[in-house]
Amino acid sequence: MALTGLYFLIRAVNDKKSGMLFFASAFFMLAAFCKISSILQFAVFAVLFFDFYRKKDVAYFVRQVLWCVVGVLSSFASGLFLMYKTCGIGTYFQMVADMFFYAGNSNDGHTIGNMVVINFKGTVRGILLLAVLYVIYLVAKKVKSLAPLIGYGMIAMAVLLLAGAVFGADQIAGLSVLYRVLGDYLNAVAVIKAMLYVCIVLILKDKEASEEFKTLAFASGMLAVLMPIGSNVGITHLCNEAFFVLPYIAICIGDRMKKAKRQTEETVETEHKLPDVRNTGRLLTVICAIWCVGLTVSQSFYMTKAYLKDQEPKQQFTLDELRGIRYDTDIVQPMEEVVNFIKSYGSESDKMVTCGAIPILHYLTGRAPYITGCGGWIETDYITAEEIEQQLEESVSSGSEQEEMPLVVFNKTALDEKSDKTNVVLIFVKENFYQQVFANGEYEVYAKDKKSN
User: Is the dihedral angle over the CA atoms 178, 179, 181, 187 positive or is it negative?
Assistant: First the structure.
């Protein structure tokens, strides 16, 4: 959705067709409906203000804004209609209210705030590694007599490191740290990520590039920054970033190569074909490229091999909400069993507490979360064990009817690990005479024993 929206945004700016902004804003709105955190990607429309600042055309800017507003409203209306026909408008916006600032299991670091920090740290790490290479280049440039020594030294180090890894030198104390830095796939990703941002900055500073080209590159650069945050992933999500930025970088590289070729043809060949510093710069570039590509390919083969080794039998979900999805049979069957049981037990007005990072059960069963403030996912950092205990005690002390006491669902992980929050719920179940009403190999469901006081 976001990539399609960016395509129409590029058409609108590059072709000066403000009507294209209708489709751009509409697709970005649909992307936000699909994943709430994707609303961050609307920041790319800041390029319109950049364009207005440059052109000072008020009428054209107003038309652009109006097309954006109409596109957003049209897409919003379409989304409301789909919600009305499926889950219900009220249910959707209640979910948004409960989980707007939440994106994933915060214990795994997947909150929007943490994603911002992770991406910032990854970029800084990549810039620092690039800075090391740039310092080597500057030394070769300032002290030309050292250029051959630096070049041969880099080649020798690369060969020795590869040979050392083959013969187990990466296990030697002291050297193991160096191998971890050079062999860490995330370091290669961090360097690539930093290079993307550096290239965008260089494009914006390029005096030969057209203003339209800079505006489009700026929009794509902003989306490349926001995509991993909106997607709730860290610095490894290069597929989204690279596709947005690489076309502009490739165009600039092509222009530079053509210009350098013309200059070479016009220059009279001197005594030295190429200065040592230029050899060093190229050598650095080649080694860095081989390092990044090599680690990326290695990681890809590793993941592919792990996927091929996975011989677990697969099964397709029969639940309407998960139709078309295939997953491990030992995951699918227990989940479908517990969902079908909960749907048949009690009424839709019943509320439920889930333990074990399984808030999806609320969506699949239609049972609202009893614990508020976390979207039904008690494992998040948005609610503490003390707050969970307080909310559970209120259900007893308020004198509510037994039928209103929540169902409690545990999965095997929650019962095996027994965190503080899980223990609070287990104590509540025991003290209020809950009885087990369902169990399979993965889930256990408890309900209030209506015969007890």
Answer: positive
